[in-house]
Amino acid sequence: MELLQLRNEQGMRPPPDVCEERQRLLNAYEDASAAYSAAVTDLRRNVEVLPEREYERAYDESERLRLAAREAEDALHEHIRKHGC
Ligand SMILES: [Zn+2]
Domain range spanning residue 47? Predict the structure, then answer.
């Protein structure tokens, strides 16, 4: 699959118009993933300094961001499936 994509990228010009909705959903997925990643980094840095209750709150927040990133990914895949783009 990756080989085929590579060959296509090398052999074909980029498509003239990229689906705007797909691009929007991809950006949203990237943003959500970056927010989740940053939250996990904070969690790791703060694991030894935060009081347990605050750590749990930060953990819950990172879980919320993880689910949001997952939803953004699902929305992107759902759009690609329906739209065929
Ligand atoms: Zn599309």
Answer: 18-83
